[in-house]
Amino acid sequence: MVRGSAHTAEECHAAPRRRGARLSHYVPYLLLIPAAAFVLLVLGYPMLRQFVMSFQEFGLAQQFGQPAKFVGLENYISILTDAYFWTVLVKSLLFCAWTAGLTMILAIGFSLLMRSAHPSIRTLMNIVLVVVWAMPLIASLTVWQWLVDPNYGLVNFLLSSLGLKQFEGFSWLASSPWTFYLVASAVIIWASIPLATISIYAALTQVDNSLIEAAQIDGADYWKRFHHVIFPAISPVVSLLSVLQIIWDLKVFTHIYVLQQSGGISSQTNLLGTYVYQVGISQGDYGSASAVAMVILLVTLVITGKYIRMLFKQGGQL
């Protein structure tokens, strides 16, 4: 009788523990519900609305209350058969590859320099990077406009002082699309380097110095140590930053738009971001602009698809 009572008491204590274990299993998901609901509300609804508008004839009249007409794939067909759209798309992809690639190369170089620098120099570099990163975008664009001003810009003054008289009064933003893109890429890279550099440097601080010393003892030079020891350790961070940089640079808008207002030929210097703005806001064709935006989303997913699949695989292993 005593043994039966003891067994019953153990079962009574075990039942709450099992219920507590089951509840603790669902606690992380319950905690994620508010954040997930907020993201769906803030990002999901606008994207869904944009997707629906891409199949509608949605212009200024619909902004004033007239019902939108469903036109099926007409907006997509109109865009995909437009030679100008494909020109803008190719320019955007090349521009993105140039800016994102050069940003990551320079960021890795600066982070390695910070790792090898004296602590006081490293602190100074961190301060400079934070100041550059924190500078308001419009303020930095104003400074760049002053630098490349045709008559009073520092760039033309220095080049003319070196004997290059063809740069006297030269307009970097209006002479040709290529000089415009050169200035625009410099502005974007300059603004993107700080965050990438600081993030990669943080990853470098986690690299095991004993592995680097072992490779050095084995006779590996600096580039071999970087290729076989350092870069594999920081590659997850570099991959993530590369994907984010591609996404940011592919849909860049403010830099291009502001520089276009300073003399750029918008029809020849449009990228995807300004093209969507031109179609939607300037021309009032929100249906076609939504279709362009969905195409941009699809292109972005295709470009970053490999990394996204890798994230899902890593998530499934956790």
Automatic annotation (TrEMBL):
One of its GO terms (cellular component) is plasma membrane. It is a multi-pass membrane protein. It is found in: Cell membrane. Pfam families: BPD_transp_1. Keywords: Cell membrane, Membrane, Transmembrane, Transmembrane helix, Transport. SUPFAM superfamilies: MetI-like. Belongs to the binding-protein-dependent transport system permease family. PANTHER family: BLL4140 PROTEIN, DIACETYLCHITOBIOSE UPTAKE SYSTEM PERMEASE PROTEIN DASB. This is Sugar ABC transporter permease. It comes from Mobiluncus porci.
